[in-house]
TrEMBL record:
Gene3D superfamilies: P-loop containing nucleotide triphosphate hydrolases. Keywords: ATP-binding, Nucleotide-binding, Transport. This is ATP-binding cassette domain-containing protein. Transmembrane segments: none annotated. It comes from Aquiflexum gelatinilyticum. It comes from the Bacteria.
Length: 252
């Protein structure tokens, strides 16, 4: 039962406004250890703001965010940076450095954050991660030589290189063709199995949601309107806004 499992994230009564723009009005959300939780919502609904609040890039007006039981508001910058290392953020645009090879892109966070690694240890880790994303032959390539789907995979590998316990995927399938989308969805599920991560997947893509999510949470007008399995939230939806989100977005 989910309710008996350990919570890695616990958000209560979260409120965030920018002037008169009341983005998050009263958000409660739990992420359980080992689950993939999908956060859905239309453009501008506050999904990125929620993630930025979680990693301390923005400060909430009210409410609390506990990550691994730690209240993020109580942390100083040094403690926050330490906590951030336990959270991997896979950006929408992959965010690879164009002037670096795949190897250098992967090494970068490792060398920056883990002291005294030997060349052999770095090589081992880079090769392990390229193997995990099924792209071992790209090691000496430049990002400009990779397809959109390959860039996403390398971006995910780079995020995983610091062994995060929580993965945040921001629109992992945006801009990809349907077959590549399915490959990325499979990779998200493989990452969970292999690295025992707990993940939040932010998406508009209902196919991605269905394939990767144990639970869905639909953000509408500053609240989570529905939280549950795909079937509970969408196929049995009674709420008008949730139903219309489903009707407009689902690719049949
Ligand atoms: N730093 C900021 N200052 C002012 N307003 C902001 C800031 N960050 C976000 N917003 C506003 O908060 C709202 C939610 O933005 P957010 O980026 O979270 O949407 P989103 O759900 O992630 O959208 P998308 O799916 O298009 O990425 C928007 O109205 C946006 O203009």
């Amino acid at each position: 039962m989910l309710s008996e499992r350990e919570k890695v994230v616990e958000i209560r009564g979260l409120v965030k406004s920018f002037g008169e723009n009341h983005v998050l009005r009263n958000v409660d959300l739990d992420l359980y250890k080992g689950e993939n939780l999908v956060v859905l919502g239309k453009s501008g609904s506050g999904k990125s703001v929620l993630i930025k609040l979680m990693v301390g890039l923005l400060r909430q007006d009210e409410g609390s965010i506990k990550i691994f039981g730690i209240d993020t508001l109580k942390l100083n910058l040094k403690e926050l940076n330490k906590l951030r290392l336990r959270i991997g953020f896979s950006f929408q645009a992959s965010a690879l450095y164009d002037s670096m090879t795949v190897r250098e892109n992967l090494e970068f966070p490792l060398v920056r954050n883990v002291k005294n690694l030997t060349r052999k240890e770095i090589d081992f880790k880079v090769e392990e991660l390229l193997d995990a994303v099924a792209l071992p032959n790209t090691i000496n390539q430049m990002p400009s030589e990779l397809s959109g789907g390959q860039k996403k995979r390398i971006g995910i590998a780079r995020t995983l290189i610091l062994n995060p316990e929580i993965m945040l995927y921001d629109e992992p399938t945006a801009g990809l063709d349907p077959v590549t989308c399915i490959e990325i969805n499979n990779l998200i599920n493989e990452v969970r199995e292999r690295y025992k991560t707990s993940s939040i997947v932010i998406t508009h893509d209902l196919t991605c949601a269905k394939q990767t999510g144990d639970r869905m949470a639909v953000l509408i007008k500053g609240h989570f309107k529905a939280v549950g399995t795909f079937e509970e939230v969408f196929e049995e939806a009674t709420d008008k806004q949730v139903k219309s989100f489903y009707d407009y977005n689902f690719i049949r």
